Amino acid sequence: MARVLILACGNPLRCDDGVAWRAAEELSRLHERDDVEIVSRHQLTPELAVAVSQAETVLFLDAGRFGAPGEIMVTPLQAQPDAPAFFHDVSPQAILALSRQLYGVCPRAWMVSMGGECFDHGETLSPGIEHRLPLFVARIADLVRAASATEAQPTGARADSQG
Fold it and tell me: Which DSSP symbol is given to 35?
């Protein structure tokens, strides 16, 4: 059972929308431990509730379409079912709600996102996002360490500014 589950969501064929996948690749090199599981998907789907129910902490990674390009945001999440809950993709809050409803477990969870600049077709990140990718990975790694080391919760709605 993974203590920390990282769910990277996005489309690596849509430029900056693939930033979560790129971060997941970097994190997989850093976290070759049994207590961290990293999963990359194009979209969140209801069956991810199984993996979520088996984790103590879940970090949802995604590119943001709002906010300044390169801005890193860390937002705590609460279980909240979508209506209806079974579209082709669902929100992180709906996944948490399914985990609670089906398995009786709702782990601590955060959305960790980076504002994107370009969502056109392409397999490369825009230069500004590529430049800030190491900061995104470092912020996620800090959250993983905090979750793995103690029961202390990662904090802060705004983790980093454009600077």
Answer: T
Q: Is 88 helix (H, G, I), strand (E, B) or coil?
A: coil
Measured CA to CA, the distance from residue 24 to residue 38 in angstroms comes to 7
CB 157 within 8 A of CB 74: yes
| Residue for token pair 């090199």 | 29
Q: In this structure, which topology does domain 4-149 adopt according to CATH?
A: Rossmann fold (3.40.50)
In this structure, are residues 48 and 92 in contact, taking their beta carbons and an 8 Å threshold?
no
| Those residues with Cβ within 8 angstroms of residue 107's Cβ, 6 or more apart along the chain or in another chain | 5, 52, 53, 55, 56, 57, 58, 96, 99
Q: In what order do the strands lie in the sheet with 4-9?
A: 36-41, 4-9, 57-64, 108-115, 72-76
Give the whole-angstrom CA distance, residue 5 versus residue 55. 6
Q: What pTM was estimated for this model as a whole?
A: 0.86
Q: Return the domain boundaries, the chain.
A: 4-149
**DSSP letter string, 130-152:** HHHHHHHHHHHHHHHHHHHHSSP
Query: DSSP assignment, residue 13?
Result: T
Spatial separation of the C-alpha atoms in residues 150 and 27, rounded to whole Å: 20
Query: pLDDT by residue (tens digit) across 42-77?
Result: 999 999 999 999 999 999 999 988 889 999 999 999
